[in-house]
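re: ur question from earlier - yeah i can do the single chain one, its not a big deal. heres the input i used so u can compare w yours
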Amino acid sequence: MKWQFAANTPNEIKYVVCNADEGDPGAFMDRSVLEGDPHSVLESMAIAGYAIGAKQGYIYIRAEYPVAVKRLNKAIEQAHEHGVLGNNIFGTDFSFDIELRLGSGAFVCGEETALIASIEGLRGEPRPRPPFPAVKGLFGKPTLLNNVETYANITQIILKGADWFTSMGTEKSKGTKVFALGGKISNTGLVEIPMGTTLREVVFNIGGGIPGGKEFKAAQTGGPSGGCIPAEKLDVPIDYDNLISIGSMMGSGGMIIMDEDNCMVNIAKFFLEFTVDESCGKCPPCRIGTRRMLEMLEKITDGRGEEGDLEKLESLAENIKAAALCGLG
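and the output i got, formated as tokens:
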């Protein structure tokens, strides 16, 4: 995707923002980076600020990550001591600083425009786009907004070159992706794989297979906005386009494995309960529609399902997806 910033004007204010509001159930990739190597993100944000002419950056991080917050604050202090952040960096006329903003646990603030509203001190609700944040973002100014993993890659790409990075992955999805592997899997934890790796390799080679000799049923990716990948799709290469084509999505990188004992209807109900709780209520199709969907799933799991319920669920889901402003759709 190519980003186009608003035309430069003398002394125009711009911002660099890092989305560290990792709210998907089972996802902890960003936390690992921020706790283990916070300087990789700070340095990359400063480079991004230099590239676009910004002097101020913000990291929006969930308050439920106290260790990451503590280490980020320490890293910012160290960056000031070594002249990586602050005024006249390395004796140049470039100045850049970074501040933390703590989220209050709202899943919707992982969506970029809701995140921006929250930093501004407003209720975390998504805004219609266009205008996109690159043109009119934080405080109405052009804003570069990326997630933790994207920023963490920048310094390595600069050091090793673009050819090194693009040598990994697929034609349309370059590089690697970090997944939080969890659920019914022998080896849980963080895994980094080249784009294009199959789900079979992740589950059975890296993850060690399903405990107890049980059969693999599905892998849930993309968080509450994603979907489930069934066993017949185990050999589909993992990249952005392929996951969307089989009814799921990459999302932040959570991957929850399910075995033969899992009920897919109950799985759907679990994620829908989460969606209902986390809806900000701004979009009526989401605020009302997700509750109606949950009621229908509860009816089915209680044994009161009727013919045509699945068609109604599919129709509701499509309407919500088409009308909602954020990823909950």
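The chain is about 40% helix and 15% strand. not sure if urs matches, ping me
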